[in-house]
Amino acid sequence: MLQTSKWGIDGAIKDPKSITAQWNPSSLTFIDGVFVKEVKNVIKNNGYLTEIYRQDWELDELTVAQIFQVSLNPHGISAWHAHEITTDRIFVNNGSIKIVLYDAREESPTYGQINEFRCGELRPMLVIVPPRVWHGVQNYTSEPAALLNIVDKAYQYDNPDHWRIPMDSPEIPYTFS
To answer: In order of start, what are the domains of the chain with their CATH numbers?
Structure first.
């Protein structure tokens, strides 16, 4: 055992394991139906290229019905919302955004679980959010940020598949900070 008596400070606590050798969070179990595809930036002579979505990744078999962008002001938060039948595929294309998911589906094996992903240009990933999973996004930086959402069902203006509760709802055990 390592002796810390000559350099340690009383009350110091050693960090627990938080990441694997593959740079995946060591304690994260995905909510049932959630998939994450980390992608790599391809460095080019004139900048870089980042793939956002490919059907041959076989993450799902759903269609692409609409793609839209959401811009978030510095420290902006959009939460909480869910869809009854729509699947979201979220990709942060500018800046840094925290994506937080909450499984309120009583029949789900991950009922009550929270997932939190920090995504952005430095760690690009596609996060697939199944129907009936509550989610919120937060720009946690002092610069503008944006995300793309690649949905399987286009927004229905006359009958939106969009449910909302307040960001500080006690129904979800998470506080944006």
So the answer is: 35-164 (2.60.120.10)
